[in-house]
Prior knowledge:
Blueprint: H1 3-17, E1 25-26, H2 27-34, H3 38-50, E2 54-57, E3 61-66, H4 73-77, E4 89-95, H5 98-107, E5 115-121, E6 139-146, H6 157-171, E7 178-181, E8 185-188, E9 191-203, E10 206-217, H7 236-240, H8 246-267, H9 273-279, E11 286-291, E12 294-303, E13 309-313, E14 316-320, E15 324-329
Parallel strand pairs: 4-5
Antiparallel strand pairs: 1-3, 2-3, 5-6, 6-10, 7-8, 8-9, 9-10, 11-12, 11-15, 12-13, 13-14
Helix pairs in contact: 1-3, 2-3, 6-8
This protein binds biotin.
Biotin binds at residues 97-99, 121, 124-127, 130, 132, 141-143, 185, 195-197, 213-215.
Amino acid sequence: MSRNELEQLAETLLSVIRKRSGQPHDIRKLSASLKATNTDIASAAGVLADWEYRIKKRKSSITFVSAPDSLIDTEIRHGLKTRIIGKSMVCYQSVQSTNDIAAELAGRGAEHGAIVTADQQTKGRGRLGRTWYSPPGTGIYVSVLLRPRFTPDRAPGLAIMTAVALADAISEYLPGEVQIKWPNDVWINGRKTAGILTELSAEQGRIHYVVIGVGINVNQGVGNFPEDIRPIATSLRRALKRKVRRVDLLHTFLLNLEKAYAAYEKSGLKSMHRKVRAYSALIGEEITVRTGRHETRGRAVDIDLDGRLILEVEGRREAVTAGEVTVVRTKSS
Ligand code: BTN
């Protein structure tokens, strides 16, 4: 049996034994139903153990014990309830940047909704030329390829749309503790736990594709962050004081994103506008927004239906499309 065939058998075996987790499956019965020899079944169970599934192997039986928290495609596919996002997926152990891979795939004609995930990134990219710290085994690094049918002027709102899908997913673990820092950071207790990097390829009124890259700090401990970001970064694990299964969080986020995108295609941010405001960490705050060399100071009063931040500057209202925000003074100070 070739390696490929063995891996396919391992996948089929997994789908059978995980249906009755904790209960022994007779190897002879498995061989008969999967049309394989007992030795093949034992080797396939060995493959599953290599993939870090916990399997109890006895002479005549195999028992599924538990699945790893790995971002491998078998695990991501299992229990993913989306119809479009993630229908096609490529999952890596380690890559430079999932956004780069997604853009490459887009250039080769990959379909709307394709995703790229990695357990680790060696050159994870953040906004404004920054790096995104992407150590193995702890975070989620995922890029989603979209091929919107709308015009490029509607693209800026996609970051906020994604932030809402992400904030909703994280709120399932930490209700009431999640905020969005416009335009694309998700905070827990005032510290950054996730970031979004939206990259667009477009020409003359037409979008070729958009790559939405999302990095989530899930199971990092305090000491896992490099010193320079330690005071401003956090993870779900730090806030919850327990680990979170990354695959479960990814499933929830992708399903939220699929629903949010369907709504966005129809009517922009309209249906999620209440959430955009409720999650906002900035509304009501005195802030500065830096766009290139230009800096504006004012009070953030709203986020409009196009995802622009509305500032009150000396009694006038100004809409800001992009920029780096710093909170000057909090409401309570
Ligand atoms: C930011 O907050 O500056 C955005 C961070 C975006 C990080 C994600 S991780 C997956 C994808 N691949 C990248 O190289 N960057 C994004």
